[in-house]
């Protein structure tokens, strides 16, 4: 493995072999216990990644980082150790790749969006991190056959959604094409193999056709003293499939399955070769593109022309220099070859800066939306957007998305220019702001010294995410005060609807959480998002209301528990003073025709002096005294009626009798304390008490009292009903 890699490095000539060998040895040691899904030693993967990076022409540090890219994530080695061995730059590259995979998500959409955000941040810092990641993904796709079918489709979809578009945007077309074809094979295997077989059927015929054309072109260029390399590159399968789908054509109706590429020594030779090609074959009008005069933002330069070949079949020819060809293959990655060797290529720095501008534009856009699906849609549009090239009045070239308008142009120049725009001229003529710009036009923006700012309708006119983001940002800033006031009013209105005062519930940890959830720093920020219809008022109010009510319930429970602890002392004192009833032979009750008989009060109804009572002769426990309306008596068998005996209260009795009450109330602080206050005021001994706060905001208090007679019990219940928030008081049977 190492020898093949070193052979490539020798051929490349711009990479320090000692650093690479040191990185290889550490990778072997770090991954020695690990295996790939294929059963191969794991280290074969980073070696292949490094090999791909060498093919791209990447620098020493990037190739070394490729060998080490899984070391921090999958082995015992740390960032600090790599930094000590290889230096900060290599350690930073490895750490950057590692961080692209570390986070958990609520949904697949969120995961994908966050991965893209992290890649954009990594690119803005050092774009080589993404070059390594693309090489990593390319090798993983090459070995995808060892994964399960579900995993294959998942990885293929990621290629279509993220990695191939990124390679496209960075001008790394060789990587893009291979990623797309591999993803095509695993995502749509039936369609892929059908297409491969169809193309293979006429391959020899097609190759002979292209060979005759190339021979003709080489001969004519040689006569003009232009040396060149020429090849007939078959278009990749996914590109052909996409064209078949978009044009609803079969393979026999797609003629340009191969593109002829002519590579010459200089820009002068490019244009000379173009002229010669057009004398041999008739060009198709509107199918010529000059990417040399106006390079793409991803650094791509070439002349494209589509001509009518033999047998009336159209085919495409691309003409470029050797340096342009390197960039066309590997895009932004080619920059590091020139950087490493100290040479420069005209426009390379500007093109690199254009890529960084695009990355920063996307980062600015992602700050404006928290919606994962919306962000991913915008990201894909930005990656694949066809572009036009227009000029400023000073002759500067500005690239814009297809169908861009003067508004997009204005915001591309500067945010302030966009905000002050009142009109536009194209080629010296006034146009409307929704005019669709075309390549080659000269655009002049008219501005006002007293701007009113953008019109909300511009969001429907602008096509670039950059312009739309800046328009939204203006409205967000300018409308802040208005939205703040509106949001506050909406929340106050909603709180009133829920029987609350917003000022009373807008506090505490829940408010802080809500503010953070909606990316704010203060309650004013919360007002703004509500006023801008980004958050439903009822969601905010309900959350605050529930938090306050929960806090109140907790305080009430705390108060009730404190009151109950105080009651325990009173209960204990009562129990010491009261003699055990079971030791008494009578309790202020006279039994007709009997003296000195054991009497017990039934716990099912707890009769009090003043209640109508009746005696029941038990088998072993004397006479049980019940209230006449006791439900237990009504359920006796008819055979037991002879056990009933007349009894009456002693008029001079000073006994205390057990009575149990239930108090229902709306819960509030000090509820139990107020209930106990009534008992204490009437000097009634307290035998037991408990309280329960319920989730519906109510409270239930149970008390066992030692009462002299029914009159005192009625007075007690009367006073309890007068307590604030008490809804009901009643006597219950069991004590």
Automatic annotation (TrEMBL):
Q: Origin, by domain of life?
A: Bacteria
- PANTHER family reported in the protein's UniProt record: GTP PYROPHOSPHOKINASE, GUANOSINE-3',5'-BIS DIPHOSPHATE 3'-PYROPHOSPHOHYDROLASE
What keyword terms does UniProt attach to this protein? Coiled coil
Q: Which residues cross the membrane?
A: none
Q: Does the keyword Coiled coil apply?
A: yes
Example GO CC term: the record gives: plasma membrane
Q: Which pathway does it operate in?
A: Purine metabolism; ppGpp biosynthesis; ppGpp from GTP: step 1/2
The UniProt record lists the keyword Acetylation:
no
Q: Choose any GO biological process term that the UniProt entry carries and state it.
A: guanosine tetraphosphate biosynthetic process
UniProt domain HD: residue ranges: 42-141
EC number, UniProt record: 2.7.6.5
Family note: Belongs to the relA/spoT family.
Q: Where is the ACT domain?
A: 660-734
The record lists the organism as: Youngiibacter fragilis 232.1
Protein known as = GTP diphosphokinase
The family database entries (Pfam families) matched by this protein are listed as:
ACT_4, HD_4, RelA_AH_RIS, RelA_SpoT, TGS
Role: In eubacteria ppGpp (guanosine 3'-diphosphate 5'-diphosphate) is a mediator of the stringent response that coordinates a variety of cellular activities in response to changes in nutritional abundance.
Q: Per the database record, which ranges form the TGS domain?
A: 386-447
Q: Which residues form a coiled coil?
A: 541-584
Any idea which GO molecular function terms this record carries?
GTP diphosphokinase activity
Supply the CDD domains for this chain: ACT_RelA-SpoT (cd04876), HDc (cd00077), NT_Rel-Spo_like (cd05399), TGS_RSH (cd01668)
Q: Which reaction does it catalyse?
A: GTP + ATP = guanosine 3'-diphosphate 5'-triphosphate + AMP
């Amino acid at each position: 493995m190492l020898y093949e890699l070193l052979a490539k490095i020798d051929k490349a000539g711009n990479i320090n072999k000692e650093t690479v060998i040191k990185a290889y040895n550490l990778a072997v040691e770090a991954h020695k216990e690990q295996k790939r899904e294929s059963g191969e030693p794991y280290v074969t993967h980073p070696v292949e990644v490094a090999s791909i990076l060498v093919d791209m022409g990447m620098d020493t540090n990037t190739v070394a980082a490729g060998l080490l890219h899984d070391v921090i994530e999958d082995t015992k080695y740390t960032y600090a150790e790599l930094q000590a061995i290889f230096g900060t730059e290599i350690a930073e590259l490895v750490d950057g790749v590692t961080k692209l995979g570390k986070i958990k998500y609520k949904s697949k959409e969120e995961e994908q969006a966050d991965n893209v955000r992290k890649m954009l941040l990594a690119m803005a810092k050092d774009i080589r991190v993404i070059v390594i990641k693309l090489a990593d993904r390319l090798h993983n796709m090459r070995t995808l056959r060892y994964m399960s079918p579900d995993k294959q489709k998942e990885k293929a979809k990621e290629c279509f959604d993220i990695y191939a578009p990124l390679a496209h945007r960075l001008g790394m077309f060789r990587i893009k094409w291979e990623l797309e074809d591999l993803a095509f094979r695993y995502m749509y295997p039936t369609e892929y193999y059908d297409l491969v077989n169809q193309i293979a059927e006429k391959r020899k015929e097609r190759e002979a056709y292209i060979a005759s054309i190339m021979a003709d072109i080489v001969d004519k260029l040689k006569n003009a003293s232009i040396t060149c390399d020429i090849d007939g590159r078959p278009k990749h399968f996914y590109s052909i499939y996409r064209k078949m789908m978009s044009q609803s054509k079969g393979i026999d109706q797609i003629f340009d399955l191969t593109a002829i590429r002519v590579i010459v020594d200089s820009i002068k030779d490019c244009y000379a070769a173009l002229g010669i090609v057009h004398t041999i074959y008739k060009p198709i009008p509107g199918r010529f593109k000059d990417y040399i005069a106006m390079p793409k933002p991803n650094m791509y330069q070439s002349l494209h022309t589509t001509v009518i070949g033999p047998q009336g079949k159209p085919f495409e020819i691309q003409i470029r220099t050797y340096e342009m060809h390197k960039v066309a293959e590997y895009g932004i990655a080619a920059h590091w070859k020139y950087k490493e060797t100290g040479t420069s290529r005209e426009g390379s720095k500007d093109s690199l800066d254009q890529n960084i501008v695009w990355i920063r534009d996307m980062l600015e856009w992602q700050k404006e939306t928290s919606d994962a699906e919306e962000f991913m849609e915008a990201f894909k549009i930005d990656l694949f957007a066809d572009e036009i090239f227009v000029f400023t009045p000073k002759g500067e070239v500005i690239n814009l998305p297809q169908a861009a308008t003067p508004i997009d142009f204005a915001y591309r120049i500067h945010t302030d220019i966009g905000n002050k725009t009142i009109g536009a001229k194209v080629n010296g003529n006034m146009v409307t702001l929704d005019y669709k710009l075309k390549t080659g036009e000269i655009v002049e923006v008219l501005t006002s010294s007293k701007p009113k700012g953008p019109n909300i309708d511009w969001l429907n006119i602008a096509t670039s995410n950059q312009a739309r983001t800046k328009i939204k940002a203006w409205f967000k800033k300018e409308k802040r005060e208005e939205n703040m006031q509106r949001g506050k009013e909406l929340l106050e209105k909603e709180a009133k609807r829920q029987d609350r005062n917003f000022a009373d519930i807008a506090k505490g940890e829940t408010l802080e959480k809500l503010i953070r959830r909606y990316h704010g720093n203060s309650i004013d920020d919360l007002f703004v998002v509500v006023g801008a219809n980004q958050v439903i008022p009822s969601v905010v109010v309900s959350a605050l209301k529930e938090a306050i009510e929960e806090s109140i319930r907790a305080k009430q429970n705390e108060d009730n528990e404190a009151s109950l602890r105080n009651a325990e002392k009173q209960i204990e004192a009562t129990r010491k003073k009261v003699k055990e009833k079971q030791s008494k032979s009578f309790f202020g009750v006279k039994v007709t025709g009997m003296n000195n008989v054991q009497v017990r009060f039934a716990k099912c109804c707890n009769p009090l002096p003043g209640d109508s009572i009746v005696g029941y002769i038990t088998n072993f426990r004397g006479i049980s005294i019940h209230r006449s309306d006791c439900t237990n008596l009504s359920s006796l068998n008819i055979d037991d009626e002879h056990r009933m005996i007349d009894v009456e209260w002693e008029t001079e009795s000073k006994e205390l009798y057990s009575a149990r009450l239930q108090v229902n109330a709306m819960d509030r602080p000090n509820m139990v304390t107020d209930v106990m206050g009534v008992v204490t005021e009437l000097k009634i001994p307290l035998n037991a008490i408990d309280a329960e706060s319920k989730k519906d905001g109510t409270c239930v208090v149970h008390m066992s009292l030692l009462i002299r007679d029914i009159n005192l019990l009625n007075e007690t219940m009367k006073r309890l009903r007068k307590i604030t928030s008490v809804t009901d008081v009643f006597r219950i049977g069991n004590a």
